[in-house]
Design goal:
178 residues, alpha+beta, Jelly Rolls, 2 domains, four-stranded antiparallel beta sheet, 1 helix, 8 strands, 30% helix, 37% strand
């Protein structure tokens, strides 16, 4: 080969090598950026799920150690600023009757189910479920009832004030297990 051809060939080879290194550098930057973004999103999702899970549905009380039957709450009233709950330990196969009445306040979110249903999904912060009864009690619809068979064990009725702590809520309950 002649000198001009060798020089041109060498220049082409050097240009190919520079282009290859530039592509590799860009690819490396993109990979690092995607990895960083993935890690950041993962950390945010996990922290949010943990915070959401820790803010929701804590079991304040525990169910009684013995199975319960008969009239368990006879028009008992809970008055509260933030939340309240009733805890039960039903005999497997019990038929449970629950009647709740909002007696004061702007409204209450009611949730009734087994303790396992109150476990929080760490990915989305939602309850595992299924719940036997869930919904709001408001002055326009102050009564909620549920009757059904339960699998037994720990259950709870959780009440969450729909207002702030200065808006005290009161709920009257009747619970019977047979």
């Amino acid at each position: 080969m002649t000198d001009p051809l060798r020089r041109k060939h060498r220049q082409e080879q050097e240009q190919i090598l520079r282009n290859k290194k530039a592509r590799q550098k860009k690819l490396k930057v993109v990979k690092v950026a995607l990895l960083t973004l993935t890690i950041l999103v993962g950390v945010v999702v996990i922290i949010d799920a943990l915070n959401t899970g820790n803010q929701r549905r804590r079991v304040v009380g525990s169910p009684p150690s013995q199975y319960q039957h008969g009239v368990l709450v006879d028009n008992g009233t809970k008055t509260f600023g933030f939340d309240a709950e009733w805890n039960f330990n039903f005999t497997p196969g019990s038929v449970v009757k629950v009647k709740l009445v909002l007696t004061s306040g702007i409204g209450v979110q009611v949730t009734f189910g087994s303790l396992a249903a109150f476990n929080t999904n760490l990915l989305n912060g939602e309850l595992q479920g299924p719940l036997e009864m869930s919904g709001p009690l408001k002055p326009s619809s102050p009564t909620m009832t549920w009757t059904g068979a339960v699998s037994g064990g720990g259950y709870k009725i959780e009440l969450g004030n729909l207002g702030d702590e200065s808006s005290i809520a009161a709920v009257q309950a009747y619970v019977e297990a047979s």
